[in-house]
Amino acid sequence: MLTNYLPTQVNQLTDAKARAFVQNIERIALATSLSQQPILTTYIHKGRGRTPILLLHGFDSSILEFRLLLPLLAAQNETWAVDLLGFGFTQRQKEINYSPTAIKIHLYEFWKTLINQPVILVGASMGGATAIDFTLTYPLAVESLVLINSLGYTCAPAFSKYLFPPFDFFAVEYLRQRLRVALNFGSILANLDAKMLLAIQCAMLHQEMPLWHDAMISYVKTGGYNDLANSIPQIDKRTLILWGEADDMLPYLDAEKFHQDIANSQLIKLKNCGHAPQVEQPEITAQYILQFLNNCSLDSLSVSLILICRRSQIPDFFKKSGIL
Questions:
Q1: How many structural domains comprise the chain?
Q2: Long-range pairs for 9-16 at CB < 8 Å and ≥24 separation?
Q3: CATH number for the domain including 241?
C-alpha cells in the first residue's frame, strides 16, 4: 500500500521507479495567510549539497513529472520538489482563490518553513512562470534560475477569464478526459511506447484529488501568468534556459526572447526534444542543471575570495600569480 493520502489509483502503478518515487512523497501542514487551516502540502526532499535545488512543475501537473529528473539531481546535490498550490497532491480548500499570487504566497511559506536559504529555482512550463514571479517578489530566496520550456510570453486564451457554469466545468473536465482517452487507446494498442503510457498514467493521478475541478476552474479564470512578460527584463539572477527544440506547445521564439530579455542568461537548445525535457531527456537535463550549479558555485567562490583579499593582508605574490 502506497502513501494513504494519495489517490488509490497510485497502487496501480507497475513501474518500479515510479512506485519508489511515490513512496518518498512527504506531506507537511503548512500555515499560510491564505486560509485559517494549514494547507497539507506534498513534496519530496532528497540528497545533500551546498545550494539546494527546488523543482516547480507545470500546469495541471504534479511532482511526478520529476520522477526521472529528481533522482539524478539528488545523487549529487540536495534537491526538493513541491506540489504547487491548487495542483498535484497538495490539499485544495474551497475558501482559497487559486491564482498566481496565492501560488507565490504558498510557495514562499514552503521555502521559508523547510528550506530557508537561497535556492537554484527550476521551473518547467507554467512552473517557469511561477519561478520568475517568485524570484521578482522574493529575490533573497533565489540564487539563480533554470527555465525549462517556460511560460512567460505565450499567454492563455483571453476567453478563459469569462468562463461561467456549466462551461467552466466542461472546459476543465476536457483536460482530464483527453488523458483518459489517450490512456484507453494506448492500453488497447500494444505497440504504443510503454514509457508514454506511464507518462499519461502519472499525469492523471493528481486529477483524482478532492476539489480538483474547483481549483482548476478558479485558476483558469484568473488568466494565469498573462501579465508577466513586461517584468521578465527585471530578472537579475544568473539564468539557464533549457528548451526542447521540438516543443509543439510553446514557440522557440519564446526561448530567444528569454535569452534577450534576461541580461545574465544562457540558452541551450535540446535536440530531438519536445515540451518536457525533464521527462523526455532527464539525463541530459540533469547534466546541464548540475553543470550550471557548479559554475554558479565557482563564481560565488571567486567573489568570496576577492572580498577576502580586499579585507586581509595577503602577500602580493598571491595576487600577482592570478590565484586570487
A1: 1
A2: 9/204, 9/205, 9/208, 10/205, 12/201, 13/198, 13/201, 13/202, 15/198
A3: 3.40.50.1820
